[in-house]
Amino acid sequence: MMDLHFNQRLAAGYHSGSQISRVLTEDWMERNMFCPVCGAPVLGHYEANKPVADFFCEDCKSDFELKSKESKTSTVGKKIADGAYGTMIERITSFNNPHLFVMTYANWSVNNLLVIPKFFFVPDIIEKRKPLADTARRAGWIGCNIDIGSIPESGKIFIIRNSKQEDKLKVVEQYHHILSLQKTDIEGRGWLLDVLKCVERIPKNDFTTQEMYAFVDELQQKHPDNNHVQDKIRQQLQFLRDKGFVKFTSRGHYKKMI
Ligand SMILES: [Zn+2]
Fold first, then answer.
1. Which residues pair with 128 in a beta bridge?
2. Å from CA of 42 to ligand 1 middle
3. Ligand 1 centroid from CA 34, angstroms
4. pTM as predicted
């Protein structure tokens, strides 16, 4: 079992809260975290200030970024601050973003830790923050928030949930299960994740095409250039069926397999 406590002794000598948080969370990851992609027992730590990622797996060459925040509540929350807006959008659209670890902690102990695979990122989930004021050291700089709440639940793989550790094998299995949803064009990925999110919002396991059509207006607003939203919905449902995430039970009727 993982020890969920940080090594607070490492905080000695640091004064800024964000530095202390970074040192303690990264040290914890180095000591405890395995690779959720291939199951390798440890992750390597990139030198400080490497802009692309924080951790890597020596075995499968996956890169990971860690975002953490202190939180008194037991849930993960909806948003997490990340770096420069422009860099983030560029990374997502060129497909070289790392997988994202999100950690929440309280009293120097991990509450939640999840990994969101890179293929669940679309520009939609990146929110632009207000440019920094003229008086700031980096005046005009534009940061971003990742809207975790808008990512389908299937794309969030928990390693620790509410201070309870999930089985390692289950974590790696879940990664490989959703890996089949990977799409290499950003437009196609957007449609898939939008439709998946709608499926998840229907509060029961069995649902119909008609119930999915209730989301047409909403999806039309997100994709104003597409005039065939109903066709798109059916096409994505078919894709989800082929990958085993939904099942056709009879004409126009589906069952969630997630
Ligand atoms: Zn690996």
1. 144
2. 9
3. 8
4. 0.91
